[in-house]
Amino acid sequence: MTRIIAGAAGSTTLRVPKSGTRPTSDRVREALFSSLESRGLIDDTSVADLYAGTGALGLEAASRGAVEVSLVDRAAPAAAACRENAKAVQKRVPGVRIAVHAQPALGYLRTTAKTFDLVFIDPPYEVPESELTDVLDALVSRLTPEAVVVVERGTRSPEPTWPAGLTAFSKRSWGDTVAWEAVADAAG
């Protein structure tokens, strides 16, 4: 069972598509969000959850104080789950704006005018590193100064190729999951 861990929508159960997604475990989300919250990186933020799957990362941010969340996933079953999960979270957090975009992450970044303070990128493990690099390149212009980007991958994956404008500062592992954090340049 996948659920929201804490915040206003804490304990809300999230719908998971029958196949094609690998939701971030509760343990990993709890550790990530405890760290982000302790640094004041969630309240009043605009968040993007790329390769959203169930939307668990973006919706956890909404539950804990983000004001706007964009859930992006090209797979129709994942986008449908995100829509349903967003409605459940919005019932508990009525002020948050949540939008679901059923399109590839790269296409979304190339067409949106939005900027983000916090971005989660949790692609399927089989997504090639070259695609992740392209997504990170396109993301830089969509980040606010000092925005934080969290990339989650399998422990066998190499560290992402960080483009100019993003500086990696943290790597943590839990079982077969690793998360890297990077910060956007202060100049934007």
Automatic annotation (TrEMBL):
Per its UniProt record, what Gene3D superfamilies does this chain match?
A: Vaccinia Virus protein VP39 (3.40.50.150)
Q: Which residues cross the membrane?
A: none
Question: Which of the seven top EC classes does this enzyme belong to?
Answer: transferase
The record's EC number reads 2.1.1.171
Q: Which Pfam families match?
A: Cons_hypoth95 (PF03602)
Segments forming a coiled coil? none
Q: Which UniProt keywords apply?
A: Methyltransferase, Transferase
| InterPro entries per the UniProt record, alphabetical | DNA_methylase_N6_adenine_CS, RNA_MeTrfase_RsmD, SAM-dependent_MTases_sf
PROSITE patterns per record: N6_MTASE
Q: Which domain of life is it from?
A: Bacteria
Q: Name one GO molecular function term.
A: 16S rRNA (guanine(966)-N(2))-methyltransferase activity
Which PANTHER family does this one have? METHYLTRANSFERASE
Q: What is this protein called?
A: 16S rRNA (Guanine966-N2)-methyltransferase
Q: Which organism is it from?
A: Curtobacterium salicis
